[in-house]
Write a structure and sequence with these properties.
Length: 369
């Protein structure tokens, strides 16, 4: 039987009554135009944050006059869960709650409970995780675990208070994040990953101290290349420390051996310490783009679906959800959007065309990191 031709439809321009009837029941194996399946969904539960990280929400832009989303714009927990079920039916196996700072969303535990009950198409538990700046983690770790969260990722850019405070720009101390990490470990939110964004000239002196601190612990430290997300962080290529340099510096101090990915499409390349005392990861979104394996969709706080972190605009699912559309119609819309997907921004960035430089991009705090 010949493959069915699926027209490329941009639902943003369609009135909800024009959205096509279902193409068919979700099969759990939806492929985009570059043959990439839909496996991960990142859900931004708030666009607000109590930090002002210089690479994400710089104070000059995100000041007291900044217009964050009003409460009624946010998807409710019921709406998020309904949309999540659609994605799971199309093959999503992993959901990450993010933001903004997800632990600022009131009663986030209720949403976690609702999502934790969902099963993948193969009947397995969902891989349900959350990325946090750690500021509220010591207080919330137990309730997150009780609600059904499986594991957690905590961001920490330095062990040096002066550097960390310069990066979070709200005077937040390292010790409080470390306490959050320890508490999360104690309650069993494992394996815990620790994300460090490396910004050249700002915290690259912390690469080796961070590696030493987490060497011999169960925590998996991951170094993220500083990315040109959004339009406010003033990104410059010469502030990116390539992952190869991160590995070189750590390897000179504590020998490393490269290891295989856990699964196809894993964002981080994995390395273990040669002495067997743990592993690290490097996320090289700038110097070694991994678009060809990108299976991630993002749902913004107000219910827009983004098929790439660097998209300029999203597809409005909230209007469908609030406009009385059936689950089948929402499912069909998601399928059409994913099938039409051709994003590969990071691969194209390597070529650095003028068009890309001029492209409008949404902020990471809105779309979810
Ligand atoms: N507030 C939470 C946190 O910081 O963990 C979750 C949201 S944050 C946008 C998700 C992740 O994106 C964090 O690990 C953060 O460090 C990372 N991030 C933010 N801006 C970035 C940038 N310009 N380049 C690379 N990573 C970035
Ligand atoms: Fe907030 Fe996370 Fe962005 Fe920092 S990286 S400003 S903690 S959303
Ligand atoms: Fe995926 Fe877009 Fe990032 Fe490429 S640039 S890995 S397509 S989110």
């Amino acid at each position: 039987m010949s493959a069915k031709f699926i027209p490329v439809v941009d639902v943003r321009h369609l009135h909800t009554s024009q959205v096509k009837a279902p193409i068919g029941a979700p099969s759990g194996s939806l492929l985009d135009s570059l043959n990439r399946p839909l496996r991960d969904l990142r859900i931004s539960v708030t666009d607000r944050c109590n930090f002002r990280c210089v690479y994400c929400m710089p104070k000059q832009v995100f000041d007291k006059n900044y217009a964050f989303l009003p409460h009624q714009s946010l998807l409710t927990f019921e709406e998020i869960t309904r949309i999540a079920k659609t994605f799971i039916a199309h093959g999503v196996e992993k959901i990450r709650l993010t933001g903004g700072e997800p632990l600022l969303r009131k009663n986030i535990e209720t949403l976690i409970e609702m999502l934790a009950n969902l099963k993948t198409t193969s009947g397995r538990d969902l891989d349900l995780t959350l990325t946090t700046n750690g500021s509220l983690l010591a207080k919330k770790a137990q309730s997150l675990k009780d609600a059904g969260l499986k594991r957690i990722t905590v961001s920490l850019d330095s062990l040096d208070d002066a550097i960390f405070k310069r990066m979070n720009d709200v005077d937040f101390a390292v010790a409080d994040v470390l306490e959050g990490i320890e508490t999360a470990h104690r309650v069993g939110l494992s394996p815990i990953k620790v994300n460090m964004v490396v910004k050249g000239g700002m915290n690259d002196s912390e690469i080796v101290p961070m590696a030493r601190r987490f060497h011999g612990t169960p925590f998996i430290l991951r170094f993220i290349e500083y990315m040109d997300v959004g339009a406010s962080n003033g990104w410059k290529m010469d502030e990116v420390i390539p992952s190869s340099e991160v590995i070189r510096r750590i390897h000179a101090d504590i020998p490393l051996v490269e290891i295989a990915p856990n699964y196809a499409g894993e964002t981080a390349s994995r390395w273990r310490y040669a002495d067997g005392a743990g592993e690290i990861g490097v996320i090289s979104s700038v110097t070694q783009a991994f678009c060809r394996d990108c299976t991630r969709a993002r749902l913004s706080t107000e219910g827009k679906l983004y098929t790439c972190l660097f998209s300029g605009s999203g597809h409005d699912l909230r209007t469908l959800v609030r406009g009385g559309r059936s689950d089948e119609e929402i499912s069909s819309t998601v399928a059409q959007i994913w099938r039409a997907r051709s994003d590969r921004y990071s691969e194209l960035r390597t070529v650095q065309t003028l068009e890309l430089k001029q492209r409008t991009k949404v902020e990471m705090s809105y779309i979810g990191g």
